[in-house]
Design brief:
mainly alpha
Length: 133
């Protein structure tokens, strides 16, 4: 029973890569990347450490940073859930909320987490280099 559910979930997730509405697989991560770049540049201007690393290494800032990150990608995340619900209705004739949350997390939150810290570090190095010149 559980094996069948996991197999169906995997097949449904892989099936989202092509076909109808596949443009969302580019658009949603692009929007999340935009917010990650914006927030990474803001972090650099404020002299903050790298976002993702700080979440794991500094317990005092973890809650605040997670709240800030969620606030930044919340709209993208919600849109990813809604668009995936439409996709599921059109392609699968059913709605699987767990799958929609997985897809939304992959398309919205992961790109944000992966880009914010590196942009911060690159921007801080660039700003430091400009200050030396």
């Amino acid at each position: 029973m559980i094996e069948e559910m996991l197999a169906r979930t995997w097949d449904n997730l892989v099936g989202r890569i092509g076909g109808a509405m596949s443009f969302r697989l580019i658009l949603q991560p692009a929007v999340a990347l935009f917010f990650g770049i914006r927030d990474g540049l803001k972090d650099a201007r404020l002299g903050r450490p790298a976002y993702f690393w700080t979440i794991f290494s500094d317990r005092t800032q973890r809650s605040e940073l997670l709240h800030e990150g969620w606030k930044a990608v919340m709209k993208v995340f919600i849109m990813a859930v809604v668009i995936d619900a439409v996709y599921q209705y059109l392609q699968l004739a059913w709605f699987y909320p767990g799958e929609a949350l997985i897809v939304a997390f992959i398309l919205a939150f992961i790109p944000y987490l992966l880009i914010r810290g590196p942009i911060n570090r690159i921007a801080r190095r660039t700003m430091t280099h400009r200050e030396r010149v």
